[in-house]
Amino acid sequence: MTRDEDPQSLLPLSESVFQIMLSLVDRDRHGYGIIKEVEARTNGRISLAPGTLYGAIKRLRNQRLIAEVEDRVDHELGDERRRYYTLTGLGQRVVGAEAVRVADLARQAAAKHLLPGWPQITERA
Amino acid sequence: MEQIVALSDWFYRLILRVYPRGFRAEYGEEMAQTMRDQARDAWTQHGAVGVAGLWLRVIVDSARSAFGEHRKQGWSVNLSWLGLGYGLAIAIGYLLAFVSFIAWSGELVGFETAENWLLRRRYLYPILAGPGFVLVGVGLREFHRRLRVSKRAAIQSIRLGVGLGLAGIAGITADLFGSRDYFAGFTIPAAFILLTLGLASMGRVAFQMRTFGPLSFVPLATATSACVWFLSLPRQLSGGFHSTFQTSSTFAHITMWVILGVLVWANPPVYGRSAGELEKTPVE
Fold it and tell me: Is the pTM of this model over 0.80?
């Protein structure tokens, strides 16, 4: 595995990048689909604007973490064709590694009683 | 609703111009499409307030992300000491010429001859304006030397510079011989119009060449002359806009800032070759 393909070398991810990648874990989405999914999942806390979104998409494509799949129509949004994005294999590994890293941080915080109501996890899940 | 979305789309396409060309070519259409979707949603859910909120967010986001994209492409403002020297020359030159002009047309902008120290010493006008035009000329000459490969722009600038010098000298000469109302009244404002057009032309080439380095006198000179003009604005306003001199001077300056503003807007990226590299491998 080259350095470029080592997920750890690409961590940590910024929150918006992590959220964008997370939105692509279960299905391919177009730009607006990503925005809606992130917004819904974070209860509106993160609302991406086009500049941030496409800046991140460009970087993720350059790093081969996501790829363009096809142009197709999203019938819920009208007749316009939209470009869809998907996670690559490397992208899947990177977002997974980031999730583990974040969970590990949460575990450490819980061990210090910083997360009320969280179980005292002593080992990484 | 569709009108609001269409208007929002039109504005957003204008904003997209602040992004680097490559980025815009790759993602501009998708970004506009996404923005249309967001505007439509915001209007449906929250009406005008929703669209206003969206726009507030988008403007901040666009400024931040466009700056980031330019920076990633090697955006730099690379001031060189030599360029700064020529910048100071043209800025000081413009300042001197401008002060002379304001003093010369003093009665028309609210000065009282008897109370104004400068107006009572009319021999100072050419003493101020002469070196001013020389310094501006030095800046124009250096501009031509550095951008000699950009022939069309350089020729344009030299033409403007020569015209400026001639008009200025003619105007001052006429003023000294007392025929200001008929001859100098036309030539001196013409000189300032030419000067501002010359500066605008330099700015245009500077942006086209994607550099501020050796041409750092361009923003410096324009910023300085802007400051001078705005500082003199209350005086100018107190004299009204009825005089030919005042109107032409005001028109020249406003035109200059509009032209430069449009050029900045149309050519936002200042990246690519550094100042030094540009001098070694100039680009047509």
Answer: no
